[in-house]
Design a protein that fits this description.
The complex is a heterodimer. By secondary structure, chain A is of the alpha+beta class. Helices cover about 35% and strands about 15% of the residues of chain A. Among the domains of chain A are: about 70 residues, 2-Layer Sandwich (Double Stranded RNA Binding Domain), CATH 3.30.160; about 90 residues, no CATH class. A seven-stranded mixed beta sheet of chain B has the order 7-6-5-8-9-11-10, with helices on both faces. Chain B has a two-stranded antiparallel ribbon with strand order 1-2. Chain B has a two-stranded antiparallel ribbon with strand order 3-4. In chain B, helix 9 packs parallel to helix 11. The chains are: A alpha+beta, B alpha/beta. The interface between A and B is large, with 29 and 45 residues. The structure holds S-adenosylmethionine. S-adenosylmethionine binds next to helix 11 and strand 6 of chain B.
């Protein structure tokens, strides 16, 4: 409770019960305009909140913020690399790339703070302020955790939440003309998918941390087909029903899809 | 004995843990009396959450206690905060929740406290004891961690008691530094590390778990209570083969290891003597002065540690010290550059998560 009072930040995404959360602020993510100096990766200017146009700066990655709904926003991340100089950052800068980073690498892209400290801290202080807030600088996504008694554990939970949020919020552009589902997406599909080879191994479920990567790729596709489940199903060799069931198997995935559908005036999946 | 974290958090497994630690027959009576007495004791006390659930109470009596405790906490408002930067009522209420977690065997039942309920719950302390404990917390400002006998630090739950410093979240970082360093240098990982002024054993234990079975850590302290508590914690985490606890002042217990240490870490007392009287009551009135008071400018121990590090570390050896803040960090680096010129290299001053420059790290210069 204390952290809410002290932080007073309406931007903070609170995901105490991430998976089942239905709080109205759930999808309200801030897009911070970062000054390039505060930004870990030099390549991420983020257009102002109202901007819906894509602007190209002297870098290879840009974000477009789509105002899909009053309080709903997504972050677009696309890569058009042309110059050699971009190569290093590309790997880390890709939306999917964030999720492929190790915990340490991802943490390095974040600014972590605890509660605003007053006074000298350290040995002077006994306050059990163990809440942790992670701000992912390239995307501005914030995750926090405060439910545990140790800062270390809160940091780990915040990082897990950050990964889930990245999967849900950072969209990669998909070229539908030449689309073939990436391996991590194939792995979360049910075995009956006609394009899923047996080399994919058993289906990865929502509890597996690897599910996030597949979920992100699935959302990328569903966004590319503007929320049409039947369209997306065709690309995945599934029936519409089978894809719906997959989407409904994970609450956060379902909510993200339904939010998109709502913005397009489509009925929610149930 | 290997402990998984899961088992540490699952009350049903606790009796198992207890068995592996030799406990005298009189433990029960000892615990009960010692729980209330803030006297320092040489005997390690069992944290509340590890005690057997031999008491029981009705949910409605538990609720009565809880309501009383909550109103006591609320009555504090922000008075402690204003007087010495102590906890406000919302923090105290959070602690109350944790106290319940530690005291009640099955805390899923706690949510049913709301209803009038004669159902009995099993407890690790008598309800009367809970009244006492909470009074101590509020009226005497006894630190919450001494009340429950433990502190959650990194992924560990360490036993603490009067006479031993409660490990601070800031200090957790030092283990990260060590982890970074040994991941780049296997030789350091296999070497001998020292944690001087180990207190509850926090740093020593954190580091042993990073080093794994190949490493060795010597953790020292001057305080006998600290030695007892650190040994208890080492035992509980099954690290007896990796950490050795030695009693004595700073480097004295390390005789014979000159030029052999792969790493040296310490969070020594660093508060300037004149600041001790103004400390938050939980700290100033209850934590041991020997763990806090760093002399006139707070640097007595830190400077001594720098001198010793130059002697004890092997070439390429790593050190990390926690300090009082920016001034200390700069002064230490100055001291090492000017007075120990050539002994150390690659200094870094690293801030804590609140942004205060807190740590100095570096390496012992390679021998010529
Ligand atoms: C600030 S506490 C740190 C305890 C523990 N390392 C931690 O971080 O939680 C400082 C410790 O140094 C110990 N100490 C004080 N003087 C000492 C000395 N001369 N030799 C060894 N240890 C000493 C104290 O007993 C205390 O445990």
């Amino acid at each position: 409770m204390a952290h809410q009072i002290l932080w007073k930040s309406s931007f903070v995404v609170r995901l105490g019960r991430f998976i089942s959360s239905s709080s109205p602020s759930f999808f309200h993510l801030p897009l911070y305009s970062l000054s390039s100096s505060s930004c870990f990766l030099k390549v991420h200017p983020i257009p102002t909140l109202s901007s819906t146009t894509t602007r190209r700066r002297n870098n290879c990655i840009w974000f477009q913020q789509q105002q899909l709904h009053d309080r709903h926003s997504f972050l677009w991340c696309s890569k058009y690399s042309t110059t050699r100089a971009c190569v290093d950052t590309e790997i880390e800068g890709l939306g999917k790339g964030y999720l492929e980073l190790t915990d340490e690498e991802l943490t390095r892209q974040c600014k972590m703070d605890t509660l605003k400290s007053s006074g000298p801290g350290g040995q002077h202080r006994n306050k059990r302020e163990s809440a942790v807030r992670l701000k992912h600088l390239p995307t501005g996504i914030i995750a926090q955790a405060s439910e545990d008694r140790s800062q270390h554990r809160n940091r780990a939970s915040a990082l897990t939440r950050l990964r889930a949020l990245i999967a849900l919020k950072v969209r990669n552009t998909v070229d539908l003309e030449a689309y073939s589902p990436p391996q991590e997406l194939l792995q979360i599909l049910p075995a009956k998918s006609s394009i899923r080879g047996s080399d994919c191994g058993p289906q990865i479920g929502p509890k597996n941390p690897k599910f996030l990567l597949g979920m992100q790729a699935l959302l990328d596709l569903i966004f590319a087909v503007e929320g049409s489940i039947s369209e997306a199903a065709k690309f995945l060799g599934l029936t519409t029903g089978a894809l719906s069931r997959l989407i409904l198997s994970d609450d956060s995935l379902r909510m993200a899809v339904n939010e998109l559908r709502a913005s397009k005036g489509m009925k929610p999946l149930k | 004995m290997k402990l998984s974290l899961g088992s540490l958090y699952r009350p049903s497994r606790f009796p198992l843990l207890l068995k592996s630690y030799p406990i005298s027959r009189s433990r029960r009576s000892f615990c009960v009396s010692s729980l209330s007495s803030p006297e320092t004791s040489l005997k390690p006390q069992i944290p509340l959450f590890l005690r057997p659930p031999i008491y029981s109470t009705t949910l409605s009596d538990l609720r009565k206690w809880h309501d009383w405790a909550e109103s006591l906490a609320s009555s504090v408002g922000s008075t402690f905060e204003k007087s010495d930067n102590g906890p406000d009522s919302s923090l105290l209420c959070r602690e109350l929740k944790w106290l319940l977690e530690d005291a009640v065997e099955d805390h899923t039942l706690v949510s049913q406290m709301g209803v009038e309920n004669d159902r009995r719950v099993r407890m690790r302390a008598h309800v009367d004891e809970l009244y006492n404990l909470w009074k101590q917390r509020i009226q005497e400002r006894r630190p919450f961690q001494y009340v429950v006998g433990c502190e959650h630090w990194r992924d560990l739950v360490l036993s603490v008691q009067e006479g031993v410093l409660i490990p601070r979240p800031e200090t957790e970082r030092i283990v990260d530094f060590v982890s970074d360093v040994v991941s780049k240098d296997q030789e350091l990982k296999r070497g001998v590390w020292a944690d001087l002024g180990t207190g509850s054993g926090a740093l020593g234990i954190g580091i042993s778990r990073i080093l794994g079975s190949e490493g060795r850590v010597i953790a020292t302290d001057l305080s006998r209570v600290a030695i007892a508590v650190a040994s208890y914690n080492v035992h509980r985490y099954g690290l007896k083969d990796i950490i050795e606890i030695r009693e004595g002042s700073w480097f004295e217990p390390l005789k014979g290891l000159e030029g052999k240490l792969a790493g040296l870490v310490s969070n020594p007392p660093y508060i300037p003597s004149k600041d001790i009287s103004g400390l938050q009551a939980e700290v100033g009135r209850h934590e041991p002065r020997v763990a806090l008071d760093g002399g006139v400018d707070g640097m007595d121990a830190l400077l001594h540690l720098c001198d010793g590090a130059a002697l004890m570390l092997k070439p390429g050896g790593f050190f990390a010290f926690e300090t009082n803040g920016e001034q200390h960090c700069r002064a230490l680096v100055d001291y090492m550059e000017n007075n120990k010129s050539g002994s150390f290299c690659n200094f870094e001053i690293i801030p804590d998560f609140a942004g205060i420059e807190r740590f100095v790290t570096g390496f012992h210069g390679k021998a010529i």
